[in-house]
Fold each of these.
Amino acid sequence: MAIENIIGLILYIAPGFLTREILRAFYPVRERTDFIQTTWCIIYGIIVSSAVRGIDSTLLNNLLKSNGKGFPSFPFIMVLFLAGILLGLFLVLINWLRFRVSQKWPKFKKLSPDPQSIWAKINQPSNEEWALVFLDDGAIYLGWIKYYSYDPNADSQDFLLSHAKRVDETLNIKYEIQGIGVYLNTKNIKRIEFLKNESTVIQ
């Protein structure tokens, strides 16, 4: 394969890779096959490359030399990478708007992006329920899941239970957590029950 073809392939994939990684950083999903990942990188890359070349030829009077032969010009390469980043941020903004619209107007709920995970779904900002957490060691906590991690490729997830109270088997308060909350991991949990109001269980 000629060096020009290799460089051209990289210029298609690299900006698309940046776009995909930025989008995944904000909205992680479970990793798919290498073929699907590469395909999305190429799709995003083609969009970026076509847009930059179109702008260069119509608005910039070929200032970036995007259609030149041989090794691509440095300004063209830099703009490609910048465009890949901007496309990723644009897609993040679109998803954010979809979340906001679906939360503000319930009839548009289907517009909300699918996080593809039960753990991510139940921790959406729209969930205002309290969590009753049962640990493997018998401890029971009632609180609000304020922060949580979500790595779709990990077997367990971390989260912080704020406004937490330690309760007994009959759900009487044993003591209240005075600090920021209880740091927990899903691997140590038997189950979590979600409640509309903490007063429904506290005696």
Amino acid sequence: MHCAFLAALVLAFVARGAAAAELTVSAAASLTDAFREIGVAFEAAHPQTKVRLNFGASGALLQQIGHGAPVDVLATADQQTMDEAERRRLVRTQTRADFAVNALVVVVPRDAARPPASLAELAAPAIRRVAIGVPASVPVGRYTKAVLEQAQLWPQVAAKVVGAQTVRQALDYVARGEVDAGFVYATDAASMPDRVRVAFVVPTASPIRYPIAVVAASESAAEAERFVAFVRAAAAQSILRRFGFGEP
């Protein structure tokens, strides 16, 4: 009887250990809503794995990994950050793949009386504050600076900039009426239809593609690869479409 009890106890601990397996996924802030659903769907398909999600600016997430943060999967909002991750050998190149496309838009508070209709209007005196992701670490900020430089409007708009640490922070500034306008992704704008509205879509030089890859130092590489494959498969792609992301 005593031996049977010990055997059962050992089996319980083994089962508990299996159930406690965790997969840490660091993803761009603009993926927050979609990846929360994708994480739940992955756990349903893989009951022995718990997905731990970490959201932030792509550049900040890369720095965390570079400093040894225990991350298994990285999903960024731009190619530049993932290119840097590859250069520093922080991700497994062979696992890298694009999985979504987004668009850059200018949003204004929902009750804005005269929203700007073009980039040039952002330089007008009527627009006093503009929320922009910090270009050094936030991909949406880099896209924004690039289009404003192309339009030769960066110096004028830069004088009005309220810097945001993530695209979601830029969205919050607009939603709270703390700025007159802000640059965010179309999917972020769609998440707050009752508080912000899209003033206009901003064309970018190249599509805004999101890449994903397994982190080189992952101790759960096989499970991480399963998650990457899951994100690219039909169920997760359907979730991404529902949140407004386009096909890569």
Amino acid sequence: MARYASARKTYGISDRSGFRYRLREMRKEWTGLLVGPDEYEPKHPQLEAPNNISDPQAVRDPRPDQTETVSVFTLTDLVGSPTPRLVSFGQVGEVTLITADEAVTLTGVTAIGQVGSVTATGVESSPSIAQTYTVTVQSYLGANKYYIDGVRQNTVSLSEGSTYRFDQSDSSNSGHPLRFSTTSNGTHAGGSEYTTGVTTNGTPGSSGAYTQIAVAVGAPTLYYYCTNHSGMGGTANTP
């Protein structure tokens, strides 16, 4: 069996410099080179492959589950205002609007975007009526006229912020829908129908028929008239 010399006088040649060194003092580098002790260079740490350490991004249970409470907001405005001064907010469960003479609850409001815009479901409204006027139609000097509470073409007063109902359930109202205009005699005198805050129900002359108006702040003097016949109406002051 072959043997290698290893005596103290055995020499080797450096793979790097070519110098002669005692073999027993020489060292082998990580590259496989056999070098002298003064030439030896250890492997730099940056040459080592990094450990494959995963960095998880998700956080488990960052906070405990919470039961969200439904907030109730109260907003104040006037009935029939053409530009309601509502604040803007996000999703809520119920909103109560307190007006001059009524409280309206909006249930299931999904969003209120820009000022005055409301999207809601299940809206329930029960406005209080400041006064109900009984409307009948009678002939006077051969022409039909509106009688308000028994007074021919009676001048009525409508307060801003209040709601008024003109009851047209009497059979004499058949064919005589009552509407409002800022022009005396309405569309028969070149005016247009005034619709701000105005709602209607049923057919004139039948049970439950009426025209209702929630008077807006700053509303002009109005005139009630028949959409089908000229000269039947009168004045509705809005002091």
Amino acid sequence: MPAQAAGSSLHSRARITGVVYLLYFLTAVSAEVFVGRGRVVAFEAVNLIGYAFYIAVTLLLYFMFRPVNGPLAMIAAFVSLLGCTNDVLNLLKVAPFKINSLLFFGFFCLLIGYLVARSNFLPRSLGVLMGLAGIGWLMFLSPLGNYLGTYLKILGFVAELSLMLWLIVMGVDEQRWREMANRAEVGT
């Protein structure tokens, strides 16, 4: 495959990841704002579509960050998929346990933040924001979450929105991603 075609493919994958992330955002917001919990069937259907988008984002992010740290990217993906599974089971009212999915998504954001910060193909500031968002989501599991809820939601929204917009507009630094992928391949 010519280098230019491979590069455009990587750039396209980063942008696709951002667009799928955007579709998740739009779906999640639509479920809460436009559909509402009063229309149960429509609300559940829109949320299921949202979870499908989030699963896709999780898998796309896994492949993006695998060169940074493959095992950690796998753990991040697994934790996110657990959160999605937990939410879907709760939505369908068949969850065997009552677990707040922010536990999973908090760790997911922390791990993604670490992977972004350790990568050299995305700005470290995005990693810091995602890490802070992860801490914020986890704070919802403590009494502090009641007092800081609005601020924590804003932080999480800004962090994930920033990563999503960066991927759509800027993509990744292809040369640095490839260098990292080549080092990871040689290391195995």
